[in-house]
Amino acid sequence: MTEIEIQISVEEGPWADEEALLSLSERVIGAAARHLVREEGQPFPAAPPELSLVFTDDASIRAVNAEWRGQDKPTNVLSFPAFPVEPGDMPGPMLGDIIMAHETLAREAVELGKPFDDHLTHLLVHGFLHLFGYDHMETDEAEEMEGLETRILSELGLSDPYGDDPV
Q: What are the binding positions for Zn(2+) in this chain (predicted)?
């Protein structure tokens, strides 16, 4: 089973309404979860795990980034796993939190020449993979995570975000 209970909170910023964000998030997170189960052999809990998505602005994410990561600057996405997991481990009943910052995402989308929703889709997948223990601090970890992102985004009809073609 790859069903996930998604809780949405729009805190700050000019985000779409919660219904539109939930619809996009369910499609993207659902595709990522199915890919992890089908292609990566990722175990999944029998009961649907919970995921919290927070949509906010640069000021809010900057405060969280400073407090939890010691980096006093805004960022595009932050992920906070509810439980420590390694890639391939069974996730817990609560996957964790993903926080997204509108201004940073919008600025990056313009810089990359991508539609905002395509960039948001990429970063939802990116943040979701962090909750499953995937990381990009070391080269081999980055290659594994980027490969997963690329395959999941391909299933969603988007191009490789790390290649020459825009997502």
A: 126, 130, 136
DSSP state of 16: P
Any domain includes 163: no
137-149 burial by CB neighbour count: b if 16+ within 10 A, else e?
Answer: eeeeeeebbbebb
Residue 161 lies in a domain: no
Tokens of 43: 């175990």
Residue ranges at the known binding site: 126, 130, 136
Q: How many domains does the chain have?
A: 1
CATH of the domain at 35: 3.40.390.30
Residue 51 to residue 39: CA distance in whole angstroms:
21
Both tokens assigned to 86? 């390694």
Q: What is the pTM of this model?
A: 0.90
- CB 95, CB 36: distance < 8 Å: no
Nearest 5°: phi and psi at 67?
Answer: -70, -45
- pLDDT, tens only, 99-151: 999 999 999 999 999 999 999 999 999 999 999 888 887 777 778 888 899 99
Bridge partners, residue 80, by sequence: 97
Instruction: Identify the domain containing residue 25 by its residue range.
Output: 5-155
DSSP class of residue 133 equals T
Is the residue at 107 inside a domain?
A: yes
Question: SS3 for 74?
Answer: coil
